[in-house]
Amino acid sequence: MTFRDWRRRALSALMIGLSVAAVLAALIPVALILFFVVAKGIGALNWAFFTNMPAPVGEVGGGMANAILGSLTMVGLGALLAVPLGIVSGIYLSEFHGTRFASLVRFSADTLNGVPSIVIGVFVYAIFVLPVKHFSALAGGAALGVMMLPVITRTTEELLRLVPMALREGAYALGATRSKAMYTVVLPAALPGILTGVILALARTAGETAPLLFTSLNNQFWSTSLNKPMASLTVQVYTYATSPSEDWHRQAWAGALVLVMIVLVCSLAARFATRRLERMHTGH
Amino acid sequence: MKFRLTTGAIASVIVFIVAGIAWILWDQAALAIHKFGWQFWQTSVWDPVSGEFGARPFIWGTLYSAVLAILISTPIAIGIAVFLSDWCPARLRAPLVFVTELLAAIPSIVYGLWGIFVLVPAVREFQVSLPDWIRAMPLFSGPPVGVSMLSAALVLAIMIIPYTSSIAREVLKSVPPTQREAAYALGATRWEATRVALHYARTGIFGAVMLGFGRALGETMAVTMVIGNNPQVKWSLFAPQYTMAAVIANEFSEAADELHLDALVEIGLVLFAITLIVNVASRMLLWQMNRERKPKTRATAPAEEAA
Q: Maximum distance among all alpha carbons in chain B?
């Protein structure tokens, strides 16, 4: 082996080594973040965290019951808005994907996906908060809905396009119209995948803070009114994290642990669900 | 036809939302735009109480932190993409993809919390441990407070790695196998074959980096919590600074008078415009990459037949 060959092989080994180092450089932060969230959050996470109201300033203890309810309510509101709109838009994109209007819709969805969440907050503020002069859970839900919409649309489109053409053709051969074929054959075939995508989108949106800061604001009290400010897990974690109180810091870590668990469980569930779906499609 | 019209009408909602964001922000910011003009982006004093609004420190902080973040994250993200597409043992691939994508799923607020209580103290200690002659340099000057441009850039870098690496991986996967095979046939080492693929995919990889850049520009919570929120234009990595997204997050719900609110909306409008341009540029690069591919594969087809 000549010196030149030796040098080329050494360079190749070096580059492979560097790429492994890059993977480690990304794994270390994941491990560090998960470690600290679990280590610091687990101590403060107890039954009271889920059932009690926030303690008044200076008192130890209390929980985030109202914030958890608030997050669930507003994610639910957002889903009510974004799931039907997103799925139907996805249907349009997959059925008429070559048309010029479909390109415009697809471009808008990708653009909306890239709009910073804080800007969406400003937009929803101008529409829902400014005219009525007060913050509301409704505005928060709308902001979360706008965040979910492009993700659900694009996921639906992609999954519908994976459904084999033969299925559609079978339906057409039996005399089904385009919409009949879509709603009775194609959509049901893709539905498990679409639902997985929807759950992932909801889990991610549950972790959003910026769009809620000045739409639903925050609320120290138990409130189920959609027309009033509403607490959320994320805004509460933010408020507690930036406060000087040690006990509130502990609660913030517990809140972060709950948020990470939601995302982690949903991601893992989605991964196993998609695996099973893939196996079903390939017939193993 | 009815099917097409009804689904199309519903799909148009997305188009209206995007147009609505642009129009409403423009409309709301009118007062500030009219009153300050270009002056708004050229002056550095931000004092809502006395009615002075200069937004230069915010645009500086946003661009500086995002540029630093892609400088840190790009080599790591491309390294991950190359490892996962070319060199990774098949068994490891799926779990590694899952873990790197988990980085994208962790909420921004959790990054911020981790940033405040773990990263910021670490940055402070790092700064204290530096020798004096380094701390005298303008890039590293300032008192050791921890909340700083460096903390923000590090958090941002971690947050955008998964976006850049997953797109770069897809781009590398879409390189025709003939490219690498031809390199191997000529006796290339593994790195040399990958280099051929990287060269082939350079447009798309640039697009992937741009996409990460767009994410970094608009990131709000994590940055707000670690950058120090001090409106100043400084090169120092250890100086507390401010970004456009952070000032909106901090001051929007407390803006008392209309001018203050409109000034914040104008910052939001410009942030929207910048991220829009970066995202569109990124998509055009990725699209360009897909388009370029077709004639080239066709050109190699006769050679395959001959072989």
A: 78
- What per-residue string of b and e applies to A17-30 under the rule 16 or more CB within 10 Å gives b? eebeebbebbeebb
The two three-digit tokens of residue B75, written as one number: 């080599």
Segment B88-100 shows an average pLDDT of: 90
What interface predicted TM-score (ipTM) does this complex get? 0.92
Distance of CA B45 to the CA centre of its chain: 27
Q: How many Å apart are CA B108 and CA A238, to the nearest integer?
A: 10
∠ at Cα B111 (B110, B112), nearest 5°? 90
Q: B12 is written with which tokens?
A: 């148009």
What separation, in Å, do the N-terminal and C-terminal C-alpha atoms of chain A show? 47
Return the closest-CA partner of residue A255 out of A239, A230, A236. Answer: A236
Task: Report strand pairing: B46-47 vs B52-53.
Answer: antiparallel
State how far the alpha carbon of B73 is from the alpha carbons of A103, B43, B152, B252, B277, in Å.
31, 31, 13, 31, 21
Partner A contacted by B223 (CB < 8 A)? no
Give the N- to C-terminal CA distance of chain B in Å, as an integer: 50
Helix then strand count (H, E) for chain B reads 15, 2
> Between residues 237 and 296 of chain B, which touch chain A (CB distance below 8 Å)?
245, 248-249, 252-253, 264-265, 268, 271-272, 275-276, 279-280, 283
What is the pLDDT of chain A when averaged over all its residues? 91
The answer to whether the CB of B231 falls within 8 A of the CB of B247 is yes
Coil vs helix vs strand at A130: coil
pTM: 0.92
Name residue B302's beta-bridge partners. Answer: none
With beta carbons under 8 A apart, name residues in chain A contacting B110: 33, 37, 207, 237, 256, 259-260
Alpha carbon distance B44, B23 (integer Å) = 27
